[in-house]
């Protein structure tokens, strides 16, 4: 019994949640009439279509289960992916404090050295190149990157 | 021979040494900036526009044409090499271009891309010269019901975009349409599905969603692979081995031609857009291909047709601009602005009052195209070698470029958050066999469908019969229904034919 791990089953759950959020969002807005559709008209009916389609996928899942199950698998280096995701969100948090350049150096080092386990030499080369590119972006293309407490 | 004389006039304007140099400089700069994702053709032109203020009017327009083509090509380059669509029009190129690069054929994809653009550009200019007046009359027939049915026709492409389950593809497309409604309602300015988050009021940005779904999710997939298992191709020794081989050329010629026609026709309709034409031509190629199963796995037709369509659509977009003064997309609007800065008003009278300007612009677009081919063929070798860098090194760089690009779109850190969310979402749903491309299509067409549906219903006072009472919309709708059910019909016919006669 691998109900929870079946790809289609998880898909159904995910899309039901999405359609419910949309349904609530659309319901709260004015839907208007067919001759004068309001702002909630489109999201509301889309969410209903999505619920119907998700039910279709659910029926397919029930039928299929009799024959075979397709399980969701996370093969490979799950811990590393987790580290990468965590690092990227951490990056977003530190962006305002450290500034674009320093947090950029940190995230690249994390990804290259600790997630991908490359040599320090290679890490250094790539970090320097990327920092140089950011400088060019900021200086010549006038993109105002967030400056950290250090002022750059 | 009027048209011939006109084109000659154009070339004589565009081909002076000075203008030629502007064109080369524009193409180079455009490619360099366009390669950076998030900076699409429109942004690139906006960034480099001040450079052209110092030039005379023709020189400025020619340089802008060069920048434009350069930026477009730059966007496709990152799609192929990194699966980062640097440009909304190169989202489709990701599908097969990146797969080709993974198989070591990045050079071939890049070569077909450059040549496809050139090919479509050439035919586009011919089309522009011959068909501008009749086409503009046709395009003017388009009201909200026609646009609605056209968008619905576009949505039926979802069934062709999907590699796997059609049901899942349609679900993703609907999700894309829902995401398209996030932000202020275009008609009443009431915030929708933003749940009080101010940063969402302006809506979601296509390029950021695409970079997350394609680029960041690919980074996670790269991380997932154990270091020992990563595929490393050895770069071929000779330059010629990087370019498309004879078989690849043969496979791409017809798709390029079809892509050009589709792209040009869609481009002429104001608001039709180059993006839709890329999806449309991809769908058509997959539909008529004898090996549809190869699409999404590195079919060169899947690169050649959309790239040609994209370019032909941009050329087609000049018809409404130059004849009616209607800019049909952001890039054309910027070019319009640039023309107006130099004191020229585009519109029906431009052709009569300033034929040198009109034809100079048309031919300089063409020269920009040729320049691009000449400049980029040697660069193909350099770019293609990037595809041979092992994925463990590539991943972090892609992540960084995506972040840089996402931030660059609006200079807002919130966009990086959106990028990451869609990256994780893309990684997760692809594990569940949901594909990202239909979602992008839904996201692009959703707002168009909503706006035109609401306008049409308001026009007809709530009656859906409006879509069946006008010739163009009826035909388009029938075509959409036919296209949607065509896989079923084909299977049915095949079964009938296979039935034994006893």
Sheet with the most strands of chain B? Answer: 2 strands, antiparallel
Please work out how many helical segments of chain A DSSP would assign: 4
Q: Which of globular, elongated, flat, extended, rod-shaped describes the shape of chain A?
A: flat
Low confidence ranges of chain B: none
**Beta fraction of the residues of chain B?**
under 5%
Report the radius of gyration of chain B as a whole number of Å.
Answer: 22 Å
Written account of the structure:
The complex is a heterodimer of chains A (152) and B (502). Chain A is mainly α. Helices cover 70% and strands 0% of the residues of chain A. Chain A contains 4 helices and no strands. In chain A, helix 3 (78-115) packs across helix 4 (120-140). Chain A is flat and about 55 Å long. In chain A, 29% of the residues are buried. The mean pLDDT of chain A is 81. With 502 residues, chain B is mainly alpha-helical. Chain B contains 21 helices and 2 strands. Chain B has helices spanning 2-14, 17-34, 41-52, 57-82, 91-102, 106-140, 144-155, 158-161, 166-180, 206-224, 246-268, 274-288, 301-316, 318-324, 330-341, 350-353, 355-386, 391-410, 413-431, 436-459, 471-498, and strands at 183-184, 191-192. In chain B, strands 1-2 form a two-stranded antiparallel ribbon. The mean pLDDT of chain B is 81. The chains are: A mainly alpha (152), B mainly alpha (502). The interface between A and B is large, with 73 and 60 residues.
List strands and helices in order, with pairings.
The complex is a heterodimer of chains A (152) and B (502).
Chain A: H1 7-28, H2 41-65, H3 78-115, H4 120-140
Helix pairs in contact in A: 1-2, 3-4
Chain B: H1 2-14, H2 17-34, H3 41-52, H4 57-82, H5 91-102, H6 106-140, H7 144-155, H8 158-161, H9 166-180, E1 183-184, E2 191-192, H10 206-224, H11 246-268, H12 274-288, H13 301-316, H14 318-324, H15 330-341, H16 350-353, H17 355-386, H18 391-410, H19 413-431, H20 436-459, H21 471-498
Antiparallel strand pairs in B: 1-2
